[in-house]
Amino acid sequence: MLQFFRSIRRRLLESGKVKSYVLYAIGEILLVVIGILLALQVNNWNEARKARAIEHEYLLSLREEFKANLKELDNLISLNRQLMEGAKEFLKYTGLNANSLSIEKMGNYKEIQ
C-alpha cells in the first residue's frame, strides 16, 4: 500500500504537476487524520466499555455487601427482641409492669430504682 502511494507521489513530482501533487498531499494528510480520529474513537469506546465493566463489578459488590448488612441487622434485631423479652421477664420479679413497657421506654431507663 505504501509502495503504491510512493509511486504516485514520485510520478507527480517527476511530471512537474505541482498542483496535482499538492492535492495528493492534502488527500494523504486527510487520510492520516481520519485514521487517527478512528483510532481515538475506538480507544474511547474501549475505555468506556472497561469503565462500565468496573462499574458493574462495584455494583455487584455493593449488592452483596447490602445483603450481608441486612442479614446482620436482622440478626441484631432478633437479638434485641430476645433481650427485650428477657428484660420484661426480669421486670416481673422487680415489681414494675413489664407489659406497659415499650422498647422506647426501656431505652430511657438507665437504672432500675
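The above is record 1. Record 2 follows with the same two-line structure.
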Amino acid sequence: MKISRKVEYACRVLAQLARSHGGGRMPHIEELADQEKVPANYLVQILNELRNAGLINSRRGKQGGYILARSPSEITVADIVKAIDGEILECSAEPGGESGACVAKVLGDLSRDFADSASKRTLQNILAAESSQMYFI
C-alpha cells in the first residue's frame, strides 16, 4: 500500500487549518505552503480538490484565505483520501490460478479494514497525535 504524496500534503495542510479552526482566521495559501513545506503551486491544486469535495471553504481578497468547512472531529482521513485520490484502497486482485481466490479475499479484507480504519480517524486524531509528542521540561 502506498499513500500518495498528494494525500500526505492534503492531510498536512488540513491539520494546519484545524489548528486555527474556530478562531475566525483564514490563512492564505503562501502561509500554508510555508508552514507545511508544500510547494505553493501544487498546494493550489490540492486546495481546489478539497474545496470541491466540501472539506474546506475559501474566500478571495485581502481578508480571504482558507478555512475548514466542518470541525476537525468531523473530517475523516477517508474523506481526505476520497477527495484527493477517489478511492480509499482499491483491490483489483484477480481470482485466477490455484491461489488467486484466496489472495483476492485477503487483499479485499485488507482494503475493507483500511477503509474502516480511515473512516474512524479524523483531523482531531492528527492533532491529538501531535500534542502527545510534545515534551515539557
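The domain at 5-132 is CATH 1.10.10.10 (Arc Repressor Mutant, subunit A).
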